[in-house]
Prior knowledge:
heterodimer, A: alpha/beta, Rossmann fold, eight-stranded mixed sheet, 11 helices, globular, B: alpha/beta, six-stranded mixed sheet, four-stranded parallel sheet
Amino acid sequence: MIKIAVYGKGGIGKSTTVSNLAAAFADKGLKVMQIGCDPKADSTFSLHGTKDVKTVLDLIREKKNKFELEEMVHIGYKGVICVEAGGPTPGLGCAGRGIIAALDKLKEKGAYEKYAPDIVLYDVLGDVVCGGFSMPMRGGYSDKIFIITSGENMAIHAAANIAVALENFQGRGYASLGGLILNRRNVKDEEKKVEELCGDIHTGIIGTLSRSETVTDAEDLGKTVIEAFPDSEMAQEYRKLAEDILRTCED
Amino acid sequence: MLRKVNGQEVDIRPILIKDCSFPSPFPAGLEFSSPARGTWNIAHQGMLIPEAHEIFVCAASCLRGVVLTAYEMKAEKRFSTVAVEEQNLLEGNMEDLIIDGVSDIIDQLSPKPPCVLVYTSCVHHFCGCDLEMVYRELRSRYPDIDFTDCYMNPIMRKSGRTPDQIMRSRFYSLLKPREILPGSVAFIGNDFSMEKDSTLYKALSLSGKTIFELTECKTYEEYQQMAQAEYYIADYPSAKVAGEDLSERLGGKFLYLPFTFSYDEIRKNVEKLSSVLSIVKPDFEKEVGICEQALQEAYLKIGDTPIAIDYTAFTRPLGLARLLLTHGFQVKRIYVDAFIGEEKDDFDFLSEKYPELEIWPTLSAQMRFAADHEKTDYLCIGQKAAHFNTAPHFVNICENGGFYGYQAITGLCRLMLEAKENEKDIRTLISKKAWRCESCI
């Protein structure tokens, strides 16, 4: 089982990228599980197209422990097993604690053993602002971490913070940094800025995604690019990124 | 006077069993912790493992109860603490604090304990501390010491496994696989040794079986010898998961033979044991006859004395009420906050046959004032019932007290007669409850 967590600044395109990776992996015949670790609970929407899915935290709130594993998952494109961790009551609860509770519950209910996915993808909200957001970095959850960034300063700042968090966990047997994914926003000196970041955090750019209207067109249809526009150049970029990630994990 | 926010006085009244819902008769709300605890706490329980050293890691103010317990037990040399402060949360060094704190304590201990119980608390749970990594590091630093994870986590009290279930399971987590001694039995999850004349113990010992009990172990090596048991038996409901966990880990066969006051159930439990293990079975008819005689003799002296029972004395308070009521005793009150599933049949029976039986909470806030009255002539079974009724005539027992089977009935009759004859000092017995103290229950 390959376990990957994808981090990055809010709005950088994590869910879109992760969902397209999930679809690309599924097209290859792999069994994929995607776990959205974001209170917005929309990480997997483009894979199953269902709005207002029950999140793990919704179930914990409503039913305590009296629910089945099957209630926590939604099957999406080509059998992708979709899970949304969900979030706390807005403005009141603790989002980090929410991720911890949701991931603990998945483990407790035997999700990884029952579905036995070939690949698990964690789509983790924004920066590592507290311990809860580092949970997917731990040994047992992820093997490799990929950070999505553009050349925008805030995205680079967030990526650096995530890398620092990973560095802090050195020696604990946690996941290692697999590389950066450059999601272009076409800002000035974008590639150069991200390469500089790579130098600072001792990693490389594992793949690059173009800024493309195809992505927003697919989103408007409530689908991934892979599903909606399988022959597009963008779909090809996602497929290539999926291959590069697989190769990095296998190394 | 405790008042509701709208100014009304708090009504201290029970619910009649006929009006009770099962299994939770009382609404959740503001809770009161009675000074009469009755059952053991997590600090008491950990000390059952010989030579173990307990280390509690939590906010200083939360340590009060367990510190007092350790001192009360005169076990302060086997007890240490690591205080968590706000700064640790801000710096995100919660894991390092546990590792360094526990290491510092161990380095100062001489001789080194063979095992250390590390109790983490709710703040670690909230933060999602990586306890797996913590224990991995501790085991790597001290390969000659066995570590196990224990919890002082009130947040887990009413969700998933309860702290009591977890603690009873952790008792046995340190056992390492050993060659099995065929036909040997370990009693699992009890805080008290089985009475030698209790039905199960007697049947096993008369059959020449080797019996292991944590409560009888004097050294850590003796404790480790429990891993030789081929069969594990639990009779305490909270210990069921401990038996299941141990069976899964070490491979012995687990039998849950719940404590009960029902003749039929006692017989079924003995038959269940006899179906897997060759034992000398008791003469069931004769044993029932002895119990009946004991009950009659007790009734002759106790007569119409009102009786109150609380759930800390025996795990089947409804079963006990049923036994006593059907033998003429005047059981008036039961103190219990929730019924266990095993008591549904007794609940239905009592609701139908004795509908006026009073069910009292122990945790409801209004119970703060339930003990504010003069001495009563109630004969109470259990410390909480004695406290709430200010009743000096009480049976000082908790968690079944090592009783089992027919012996539990005859033994209880004996204790009830003693309690009827002699007054006890409620305050002293309730305020001191652990080993080597006056109560020593």
